[in-house]
Design brief:
Layout (H helix, E strand, L loop, with lengths): L1 H29 L2 H22 L23 H21 L7 H7 L4 H19 L11 H28 L1 H35 L7 H4 L9 H8 L5 E4 L8 E4 H18 L4 H12 L3 H24 L7 H21 L5 H29 L7 H32 L1 H4 L6
Antiparallel strand pairs: 1-2
Helix pairs in contact: 1-5, 1-7, 1-11, 1-13, 3-13, 3-15, 4-5, 5-10, 5-12, 5-13, 6-7, 6-10, 6-12, 7-14, 9-11, 10-11, 11-12, 13-15, 14-15
């Protein structure tokens, strides 16, 4: 039981580190005229494509640009674009307001909107990569990163991302419904565990707050994890398979060292998750680095941000983009929405109690879990694995979609309401 509590705690730390990175990147983009111009240029092809289809010019475009034979839609739809902005906005609210990565809702939201799972994964990865290269290729606050540690880890992450991309494409070619069912199952497992932990954590914090405890958040926000190692990290660091990679020189005297083998294997696992799910993988990097490898949380933050940029870029381009599994319109819409949502969400945290935000986070994650678990029976029925009526399967899926969007939409409405009501407070003005 202790293992699962620690695993959940470290996964939450990874989500918070990723959220802080997204907030910094968003501020960097919105604070630079050059980056805003670049963003405009990235969105311009959407409108050009839209005009092309409106005038039927698309009929003479080369087949390589898409058409009916392409896996991904090559057409422009204003409705789809607006939906993608809304999805990005909601993810941004979660990231900025809750202080934990909201990217986990993107793939379920896209799949609920009718996008194939493999296309949702590739588009999410491309959205992360586009945001990263616009904000900064190398994060400005990587003072704690061990370059050697990061580079060896990235080698494994790229291998894992390749395997994840190959697996997703193979399943899609075998049966598109099987592909959707596989991605849905993976999300069910991840969101179910993380959501359960977040809800238990919230309930404990609520009880502690009622008792007047001031230490409710220490476990989730502590910065010393990995300084005092457990037995597993000590055992792994004692294995001498050269070359040994040294790190944490500023944390312990003389630093620490671990074999490249364990770093490559760790990177492969994180990259595999990123390649299959379309997320950065930070929720796995923290428990692996801190709990298993004995890396300090400070160094883990730097390495995690470093790997997200390169893993997302590599996976999105080599495993999805060149095979037509990226919906460019969706990616740009999500980028626009998330940039705005993150900023609004971050400002709302200044006028809302932290315990309330933690409750919303638990609900958001669990709503994603409900969405995917209720979508699974319809997919299993289509594959003739589950013998249920079409009406029941459709009803369960519809319930999951409504439950998800009601919770996420309700949260978004609450954020906007709180923001509007407290604009004067946020500006530092007197309120009557």
């Amino acid at each position: 039981m202790q293992f699962f509590r620690q695993l959940g705690s470290f996964m939450m730390m990874g989500a918070r580190a990723h959220a802080q990175w997204e907030l910094d990147v968003s501020r960097t983009i919105l604070g630079s005229k050059k980056r805003l111009i670049l963003l405009g240029l990235m969105i311009l092809p959407i409108f050009i494509l839209g005009m092309a289809y409106a005038s039927d010019i698309s009929q003479v475009l080369p087949e390589i640009l898409g058409g009916k034979k392409a896996y991904s839609p090559s057409y422009y739809s204003l409705g789809i674009f607006l939906v993608s902005i809304g999805i990005g906005l909601m993810a941004g609210f979660i990231t900025g307001c809750i202080g934990a990565g909201g990217g986990f809702i993107i793939a379920p939201a896209l799949m609920s909107a009718g996008i194939k799972g493999i296309l949702a994964v590739g588009t999410d990865l491309f959205h992360i990569f586009a945001k990263a290269i616009m904000g900064s290729v190398i994060h400005r606050k990587l003072g704690n990163v061990s370059v050697a540690l990061a580079l060896v880890f990235i080698v494994g992450a790229m291998g894992g991302a390749t395997a994840g991309g190959l697996l997703n494409r193979w399943l899609y070619e075998l049966n598109p419904v099987l592909s959707d069912a596989f991605i849905t199952t993976i999300y069910c497992l991840m969101l179910g565990f993380l959501g359960s932990y977040a809800m238990i954590d919230y309930l404990k914090a609520t009880r502690a707050a009622k008792k007047g405890s001031h230490g409710a958040d220490q476990g989730a926000h502590g910065g010393g994890e990995g300084v005092d190692m457990g037995n597993l990290p000590k055992m792994l660091q004692s294995v001498n398979i050269p070359p040994m990679i040294r790190f944490d020189h500023g944390v312990t005297e003389g630093g620490r060292a671990i074999s490249w083998v364990f770093l490559v294997l760790s990177g492969a696992l994180v990259g595999l998750a990123a390649g299959i799910m379309g997320v950065g993988g930070g929720f796995l990097t923290f428990p692996i680095f801190v709990y298993m490898l004995g890396v300090s949380s400070a160094t883990t933050v730097g390495t995690d941000i470093f790997q997200i940029i390169f893993t997302a870029g590599y996976a999105s381009i080599t495993q999805y983009a060149i095979y037509g599994f990226i919906f460019y319109t969706l990616a740009m819409g999500m980028l626009l929405g998330s940039l705005l949502g993150i900023q609004i969400g971050a400002m709302v945290t200044k006028v809302v109690k932290g315990i309330t935000i933690r409750g919303f986070y638990a609900l958001a994650v669990l709503s994603g879990f409900v969405n995917r678990i209720f979508a699974l029976p319809a997919k299993l029925r289509s594959m003739e694995v589950l013998d249920i009526s079409e009406g029941l399967a459709s009803g369960l899926e519809t319930f999951g979609i409504w439950a998800f969007f009601v919770v996420i939409g309700g949260f978004g409405l609450w954020v906007i309401t709180v923001f509007v009501q407290n604009i004067k407070v946020l500006k530092g003005e007197e309120v009557a």
